[in-house]
Amino acid sequence: MKQFGKILKFELNGYLKNKIFVGVTLFLVLAIAIVIFFPNLKEFLRSDGGAEEGNQRPVMLVYTEDGDLASTLREAFEAAFDGYYDVQTAEGTVDDVKRMVIGGSAECAFALEGISAYTYYVNNLSMYDGNTAVAEAVLQELCRADAMAQAGLTPGQAEKILSVAVEGNTETLGKDQNETVLYTYIMILVLYMAIILYGQMVAIKVAAEKDSRAMEVLITSAKPASMMFGKVLASCLAGLMQLAVIFGAALVLYRVNQSAWGGSDLMESIFDIPVGLLGYMLMFFVLGFLIYAFLFGAVGSAASKTEDTNTSILPLEFLILASFFVVNFSITGGGNINSTLMKICSFVPFSSPMAMFTRICMSEVPGYEIAISVAILIGSVVGVGFLAAKIYRVGVLLYGTAPKIGEVVKVAWKA
Amino acid sequence: MILEFKNIHKSFGDKKVLKDVSFTAESGKAFGLLGRNGAGKTTSIRILMNVFPADSGQVLLDGKPIDYKKVGLGYLPEERGLYPKKQIMEQLVYFAELKGMGRRAAADSVDRWLERLGMREYRTKRLDTLSKGNQQKIQLITALAHDPDIVILDEPFSGLDPVNAMLLKDVVKEQIAKGKIVLFSSHQMSYIEEFCDSIAVIHEGKVALSGDLRDIKRNYVRDRLVVRAADPQPIRADFGAACTEGGDGALILQMRDPAEKQTVMKRLVEQYDIDGVKVFEPSLNDIFVEYAGEQA
Prior knowledge:
The structure holds 2 protein chains of 2 kinds. Chain A is mostly helical. Chain A is built from 20 helices and 4 strands.
């Protein structure tokens, strides 16, 4: 136990004194600070730009050969694209309009034949260009108003018909996925990233000790279980400390600058995680991290050289990637997070940290299911930890050609 | 203290690495563990260090199984290596702490050893900035800083220049004088002869020879003669296959029986123009080659 404490302290110090580790943490805090202070920066730039701001909006041309229609169309388009485009009426021919778009004096143009047909001219069509959808809505409304006028309705009556409002309420009896999806997604993404990054670090550290032959002294100085648990828990603590600094800084910075966001739903949904879920997050993060970190450590010990580690850990990376994709698709692909696959995944220890956490965040999960999942996970962490320590003891002394993982497990099992 | 390796067997998979290995080492004396590469020396050392257990047999200290919590072991492995990117002081203190020392005591001891080996100026340097010889001295400190009862030195002199080799010799002599059990493994037989009172030669997992080095030499069959002659040709011709080159211009004559010594010597003096003849005294190297060589 004493040895374990010393190993843990030494390994943790190794992380905390590592310039890259500290640098990455500070960089991420800085990046988050920039994001959180973005509204202030935008405001600052806007006030700095002043009067030019209005002129800097891109130009959208509206072209029609029907002179009477031109001003109606321009007004309707201006109302629809307010704040995004400086809507202007184009003169001349369609070719002149095209030239203006190609020349850059206008970003896009709508050439209309009446109010029911148009051609959209744009130089490079962006993947996210929604201008045609907006224009179609505007034109449909004009068409309807026109049809109603022809049927003998006054403009006032037509407007009343078109602006009928339906009153509706949604009462969420379980959990509102709109509110929970962001922090759930952030957590599983963070867990995925942490496992990949720190797992790799654990594997490489073990392989480097073997490669540098420091292992010869280590293995004769400390118990393999102490070594493995010390290393893995140190990496877990380092990871948690890094995340605590990053998320702590984000929370403090957001609270300081909350007013600038004007109660943004997006930001509120990230920072307003219920305390109970934070507890689950911490528990699943630690357990999920540990089960993978032990495996990464074991694989690192069996690698013959540091540079072989990246290849050796690939199967583990696929395993975590597969879990991530299942959960990710369940969230984004229709939100069916209680599908049979997700239910199975929430009991398999290699995917349950992500799957069960997602289910808890985004739906109602019976308490016994959570208890069973956590019990399986804790049991697996302990089991995998001791098996990893055994593999470590056998693996670190095998030099030369990397042994087959099956053989190592077999020997370790007997050891 | 008496360290006993008693009937140790060890296999890895189907490969039997140690077969009934037994030897005894005493405190205040150095013990030489010899053998060719792959003979089973490192496996024996790892069993002694409790890295893995023997399949059968016992490692005893004063007749009782070693209590690894109480008995300190220091190991200088043949495969040298520490943390290349870490500060020397930091890692030496860490290794001494792992061996059970408190932080303060570990730091004091490491400081003393750095001073003793003339390495004090490097305490805050990274290991990979040091020369190979100096790295080896740092490695030696990991084996000795915690003042172990049993010191295991595997090829301690390889890679050292003559000045550092002399320094290491003094350190080894000090350890022996302090009453430690010093286990020496080396292919440099001259060092073994210089330090070790007793040896064990392991060959293909078995002890081929063990005991007091002087007794081994004394009991060595004295059935060969070393002959020096200005013109060795007639001797070669007459003795045929019994005559081999002994190096340095000398001839080695193999007798059928040590009792023939007087007869053969007389014949040599009377029949040939010889410069000198004496009974062949084997070096440890000769004994090693005989017991661990291809024909052993």
